[in-house]
Amino acid sequence: MTIGLILACTYAAGLLFARRGLDRTASGTNADRHSVTIIVAARNEEKNIATCLQHLLAQDYPQELLEIIAVDDRSTDGTAAAILKLQKEQSQVKLIQIRDCPANISGKKNAIDKGIAGAQGSIIMTTDADCRPGRRWVAKIVTYFDPAVGMVAGYNPYQLPQGRASFFQRVLHLDYFAMACVAAATANLGYPVSCSGGNLAYRRKVYETLGFGSAAGLASGDDDLFLQRVREETNWEIRFASEQESCVPTQPPQNFREFVQQRIRYASKGLYYSAPVRAALLATYFLNLFLVAGFVAAFASPLALATIAAAFGLKALGEFIFLRKGATVFATEVSSKLFLASAALHPFYITAAGLAGQLVSFNWKGRSHRSGVVKLLRGTDGLLEAQVE
User: Fold this and answer.
1) 87, 143, 316, 344: which sits with the fewest CB atoms below 10 Å from its CB?
2) pLDDT in tens, 249-286
3) Could you list the residue range(s) of the whole structural domain that residue 164 is in?
């Protein structure tokens, strides 16, 4: 029980320290107009791709400096046809079709790699087919590319239906918002740990120097594991863009099953993070495991209930203070009632998803992918098996 309280205190203190990063939020100051290539890797996105591309075509940025590449990753629906239809009307849109994928690289990373190989822009920006960038997205992100900056991450919030969002959707929105706060805070502190491929930009020469490396075979990680390479292997600065104009709304999981599969996918790459990040994730996992186990033990021991309540209170207080600061940075609100409900559920899903991500296969884009532990054990020469067909 003492260990649980120590973990809770450490966790809360860590969030209060990270809060200092949110205090350092600053806008971009670069005035140069870089050439930009936006890459959208799409698999079976017939329903989304045209709307996404229309948002990209509406960007308030010099058209002669903007290129849009849509990569059809072996879709079995009308994705390619939807892109071709738009391409006939808009010469800025370029289609790359992928027929097969090498065994040592995952589908999405292969699609991004092929897109970059055909790109003309000095800045690569990535987003997803279910994302809806605003008109000023490109212009705002480019302002962060000072000469020393090699990568810029941005907010990729869940877009909730107006006035009729369910409790489940609102909890997911808060959870994703919390991830963005961590990404922004750590970037501002000089040690960025995460980002989202739905709103990410980097210099093309940075990618050409690094590539995806030994994580190429992972189903996930085209964003944060690549960020890790930039952080660890180069001297380029990494910034986080938090202004409203730089955010790119995306669609939340449509049901509980999609949510579970998504979170298992996120957890499956945990073994490939740097040692400090793995240590922080492991400590956080054991704190949540302690809370779940303590909740069960509390039925038999009043002392256990008091200890668990104290640990939960410390954890929740640290999170609430951190997120309230994040709300000012991202110009949003954090409902106290929704936060408490989410905080009560958080230990259970973190414990389950964290374990499942290492032991259980998951489905994504119509394919089954191996768990983190299996992929690590089966990796050879730094190259991991990409997927189970």
Assistant:
1) 344
2) 998 887 888 888 888 878 878 888 999 999 999 999 99
3) 26-271
User: What digits encode the pLDDT tens for the residues 144-161?
Assistant: 999 999 999 999 999 888
Task: Classify burial at 302, counting beta carbons within 10 Å of its beta carbon; exposed 0-12, middle 13-18, buried 19 or more.
Answer: exposed
Of 201, 199, 200, which is closest to residue 159 (Cα–Cα)? 199
For 358-375, give the DSSP string. Answer: HHS-EEETTEEE--HHHH
Q: How many CB atoms lie within 10 A of CB 167?
A: 10
Inside any domain, residue 384: no
**Rounded CA separation 388/115 (Å):** 24
DSSP letter, residue 388: B
User: Same domain for 133 and 250?
Assistant: yes
Same domain, 311 and 339: yes
Report the 10 Å Cβ neighbour count for 181: 27
Cα dist. 309→15, 290, 316, 319 in Å? 19, 12, 10, 15
Same domain, 238 and 336: no
Domain membership flag for residue 385: no
Contacts of 275 (CB under 8 A, 6+ apart): none
